[in-house]
């Protein structure tokens, strides 16, 4: 469950705290909470079996989330109300009011902290059903300030109460929820807190578009964006003011016309991403605060230029949204032998068997990365691939089908790029940046096998030195991420393919995994990261 702020506007006179459980991406899109659409049952044609299953799914989520809210707010008892459907309640069949029934069922289980106010807002006049659009028979006024007061009966029982207003899906800009909140205040509610099962995520925001455009100019880098994000957000909708303000700071001035042309060009690229189910999330966005900031906030030793400013995401965003999820990165050489591959598969199998919370993370490279992603899928787990390339142009090409399979299986693809590199040097830099993200989004990194840089000329036939493993482990050390390496002193001390592992195994706080201890070590690693150890104060003695 995540917090957000519903900002005051023409419908709402004050900012209001809200909560949501998951993202709404669009009906029938992979990883979308389609059970909410089923429960709406707009045309009263859903089967009883589907409706029952959807009800159970919603009730499970509500039972998990709703009781946490009074506790977090320090309120002993709250009255739970439900945002009414768009048409008069009497016009709906009971099978079309099952969301409200699900809320009612859950409230009845927590009578000690909740009052049942699910019937305190009743629609008595038809309004426009916003999510159905201009279909035949969809009549009534569209949202306007005061529409709830004009079209609903609101019980006097809300007066003086601390209200928890519940809806199925919150969509910024629709303003139905904002108006319902305002109506409760005007009817005497002491306080109103909002909760939605799902939050509609836009494919990209004006803020993201502005940031990507600013990054096209000399003198504007990640540091500038991070330090000035509040100012940039303030002028999100006013491009002229934004450019004027930037010109007051940087040396090389920006033409407003040039900025708008660049912005329009980038907008076309972001729309291509949107058309391929890719979401653009930028610092300052509501989604960024739910997906990225919780992890960054746990790491003190991170520079502004190391923070991801814009991310492109395709797949199950809940793999980042869910704070209970445990991301274990499994990385290593591009040239694993049969023994490496077997042990890597066993480690992943034990990780997934030991905890359903584990997601396997890697970099989609040939070799150990590929084994990690494929093994996670094979063993019924989830996997995240962090890319050095745009999602629309997967690198390496050999793994395009694997990337598609990850998406199809409700895994997640992450990239910082929407366009191809313009030089080999830029591509090389992107691989290092990819390794940084692997560390940033991991709770633990396990290195299967990799050689130290000083042996790169000795290992014949390996054109690509395993710089990636070295960079990822270096960033993990800096960020305070738990590190583990496959290393057996008797077997690997003279094996150059394990020279990086050997070097790291001798460092403080690095855990060595081998054939004989793998089960016990994996168990203890998971126990450690499940407790959410302090990233900056890993245990005070070496090992476990």
The overall average pLDDT, rounded, is 92
Biggest sheet descriptor: 9 strands, mixed
Strand order, biggest sheet? Answer: 9-10-14-13-12-11-15-16-17
Number of contiguous helices: 22
Distance between the amino and carboxyl termini? 32 Å
* Total number of strands: 17
- What's the gyration radius in Å? 26 Å
Indicate the structural class: alpha/beta
Strand content: 15-25%
Fraction of residues in H or I helices: 25-40%
Runs with pLDDT <50, length 5+?
Answer: 534-544
Which word captures the global form?
Answer: globular
Q: Nutshell version of this structure?
A:
By secondary structure, this protein is an alpha/beta fold. It has 22 helices and 17 strands.
Could you explain the architecture of this structure?
With 544 residues, the chain is α/β, with parallel strands linked by helices. The chain is built from 22 helices and 17 strands. The protein has helices spanning 35-40, 48-65, 68-73, 98-109, 147-151, 176-186, 206-214, 222-227, 229-234, 239-247, 256-275, 286-291, 293-296, 318-321, 338-354, 368-378, 400-408, 424-440, 467-479, 489-492, 499-505, 518-530, and strands spanning 2-6, 16-24, 78-82, 114-116, 121-123, 152-154, 162-170, 191-200, 279-282, 310-315, 326-331, 358-362, 382-386, 412-415, 444-447, 482-486, 510-513. The strands form three sheets. The protein has a nine-stranded mixed sheet, with helices on both faces. The chain has a six-stranded mixed sheet with strand order 1-2-8-7-3-4. Helix 4 links the parallel strand 3 (78-82) and strand 4. Helix 15 packs across helix 16. The radius of gyration is 26 Å and the shape is globular. The two termini are 32 Å apart. Mean pLDDT is 92; it is low at 534-544.
